Structure formats: structure tokens, C-alpha cells
């Protein structure tokens, strides 16, 4: 489904078609999704395809395979950090032929967060700073990298960059993120009503199911919540 949605978004952004052809395709899309809108999960119920303990979010807009806007980005270990390879297309365009700056920020938010998670720490984004040094080209294999730069209490600082695969020494975007693991009180107030698809409780803390993490997927492996 995610692949079909991605194909639809790209087709919509690139098709050279008449208004009649576009209306016909739009009607077919509406017909196709109509049966899927009859019974839907509540906003505080996770998808049955999600597994917080293993860091699997099927509809995350960056890494979720089921989300049509997601690439989806996949992480690989990179020394003590993380990297991801991506080639962006017409649905990510800002200035003609270049990536939208907000899309770069979206991708870096996720990979910086992952850079904290692979060190056994995690948190919500408290600060995100980007320096756009060169425009990021579309249709070009890119490298996104991140690495933890510092940690204190519940705060984790992570730095990263976007480059092309062809010229990894030329930094296009520099990024810094501060991730703060929420207090017990904030965690309860934000996520206390969230339930798994089978009705189980989850406070969303990555790492509660750390023992279940597939050793073959170390880049997705969550760590325990940092101590206070
Ligand atoms: C089933 C539920 C699922 C829930 C999942 C939740 C989180 C998931 C975590 C990881 C996600 C997994 C993948 C990784 C990729 C992620 C990328 C996307 C992540 C996001 O898309 S996430 C959404 C955007 N994000 C927010 O929506 C945060 C809004 N924000 C707040 O909700 C609070 O702000 C919070 C909770 C951050 C802190 O609240 P708090 O009460 O727990 O902590 P407190 O204020 O006591 O601060 C403790 C120490 O951090 C320092 N500190 C705090 N904030 C600071 C700031 N902004 N700048 C500088 N320092 C800061 C203080 O100065 C103090 O430092 P010190 O200890 O030295 O005094």
C-alpha cells in the first residue's frame, strides 16, 4: 500500500495529463480508498503493524514503509553513529530541481534522533538547528549521517550532515539536534492513553522491549531510557 501511495504521489507531481485524465484518476483513487474508511482505529491506538519496543512505526513520515510520503529512510550502522542513503524526487522539491529545506529538516530530525537511540538514549526533539550550506539536489544519491556529540542527564546532543554519495566531503546541510527524554510526569501526560492494537498499555518508551530487539537490526535497536 505504501509503495502504491508513493507511486501515486510521484505520478501526480510529474504526469503530463489532461484535466479529464486527472479527474478520472482522482475518482479511481477515491473509489479504492472508500472501503478503507469504514472502520478506522482511534488516534490513541497504535497500528497492529507498530512495535514500539522494536522501534517499528509503520506510518512514520520518514521511516514508515506504509506512509506514502516516507521514502522510507532505512538506517545502517556507521561506526558509533548511523547513516542512511536516499534519493529524493519531485514530491520533495522546494526550489526547482532542489530539495525543500523543510524536507531536509524532517529527515535530519529523524536520523539525529536515531543517532541518540543507537547509543542507548532517546528523547523528543527539543531543539533542531540546520545550516543550509549548498542546495541539496533531487534525483541524486545522498548520504545522511548522524552521531551523538554529547549527553547529560536526560539531554542528548547529536550532530549530522547531508552530502551526496559522490562527494561525501562536501557538506550540503549541517544539523544539530537536542533530544530530551521526557520526565515520568510528561511521559504519562503525553502517552498515558496510548494503547497497542491489542489493547495493551504502552507509555511509548523505546527500550521497554529491548530484550526482544532483533540483533540483526542494530540500527533500529532502541536503548533504555536515560536515567534522570
Ligand atoms: C506510544 C507513544 C509514543 C511516544 C514516543 C515518544 C518519543 C519517541 C522518542 C523517540 C522517537 C523515535 C525515533 C527517533 C526519531 C525522532 C525524531 C522525531 C522526534 C519528534 O518529532 S518529537 C516531537 C517534537 N518534539 C516535541 O514535541 C517536544 C516538546 N517539548 C516537550 O514536551 C518538553 O520540552 C520535553 C519533553 C522535551 C522536556 O520536558 P521535561 O519536563 O521532561 O524536561 P525539563 O523541562 O525538566 O528539561 C529537562 C532538561 O532538558 C533541558 N531542556 C528541555 N527542553 C529544552 C530545550 N528546548 N532546549 C534546551 N534545553 C532543554 C532542560 O533545561 C533540562 O536540563 P537540566 O536537567 O540540565 O536542567
From TrEMBL:
Top-level division of the source organism's lineage: Bacteria
Domain Thioesterase: 98-167
Protein's membrane topology: Peripheral membrane protein
Reaction catalysed by this enzyme: (5Z,8Z,11Z,14Z)-eicosatetraenoyl-CoA + H2O = (5Z,8Z,11Z,14Z)-eicosatetraenoate + CoA + H(+); tetradecanoyl-CoA + H2O = tetradecanoate + CoA + H(+); (9Z)-octadecenoyl-CoA + H2O = (9Z)-octadecenoate + CoA + H(+); dodecanoyl-CoA + H2O = dodecanoate + CoA + H(+)
Biased composition (Basic and acidic residues): 202-213
Disordered: annotated span: 199-228
Pfam families found in the cross-reference section: 4HBT
EC number: 3.1.2.2
InterPro entries: HotDog_dom_sf, THEM4/THEM5_acyl-CoA_thioest, Thioestr_dom
Name of the top EC class for this enzyme: hydrolase
Entry's localization field: Cell projection, Ruffle membrane; Cytoplasm; Membrane
Keywords of this entry: Apoptosis, Cell membrane, Cell projection, Cytoplasm, Fatty acid metabolism, Hydrolase, Lipid metabolism, Membrane, Transit peptide
Transmembrane helix found in the keyword field: no
Similarity comment: Belongs to the THEM4/THEM5 thioesterase family.
This protein's name: Acyl-coenzyme A thioesterase THEM4
Source species taxonomy: Bacteria, Bacillati, Actinomycetota, Actinomycetes, Cryptosporangiales
Amino acid at each position: 500500500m505504501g509503495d502504491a501511495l508513493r507511486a501515486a504521489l510521484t505520478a501526480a507531481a510529474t504526469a503530463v495529463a489532461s484535466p479529464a485524465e486527472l479527474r478520472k484518476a482522482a475518482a479511481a483513487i477515491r473509489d479504492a480508498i472508500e472501503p478503507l474508511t469504514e472502520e478506522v482505529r482511534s488516534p490513541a491506538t497504535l497500528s497492529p503493524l507498530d512495535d514500539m519496543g522494536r522501534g517499528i512505526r509503520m506510518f512514520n513520515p520518514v521511516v514508515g514503509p506504509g506512509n506514502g510520503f516516507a521514502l522510507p529512510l532505512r538506517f545502517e550502522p556507521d561506526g558509533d553513529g548511523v547513516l542512511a542513503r536516499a534519493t529524493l524526487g519531485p514530491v520533495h522539491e522546494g526550489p526547482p530541481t532542489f530539495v525543500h529545506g523543510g524536507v531536509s529538516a524532517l529527515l535530519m530530525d529523524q536520523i539525529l534522533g536515531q543517532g541518540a537511540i543507537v547509543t542507548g538514549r532517546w528523547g523528543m526533539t527539543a531543539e533542531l538547528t540546520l545550516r543550509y550550506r549548498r542546495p541539496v539536489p533531487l534525483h541524486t544519491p545522498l548520504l545522511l549521517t548522524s552521531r551523538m556529540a554529547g549527553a547529560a542527564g536526560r539531554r542528548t546532543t547529536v550532530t549530522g550532515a547531508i552530502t551526496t554519495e559522490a562527494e561525501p566531503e562536501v557538506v550540503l546541510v549541517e544539523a544539530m539536534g537536542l533530544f530530551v527524554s521526557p520526565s515520568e510526569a510528561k511521559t504519562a501526560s503525553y502517552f498515558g492513553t496510548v494503547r497497542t492494537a491489542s489493547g495493551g498499555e504502552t507509555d511509548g518508551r523505546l527500550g521497554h522491549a529491548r530484550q526482544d530487539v532483533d540483533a540483526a537490526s542494530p540500527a533500529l535497536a532502541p536503548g533504555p531510557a536515560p536515567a534522570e
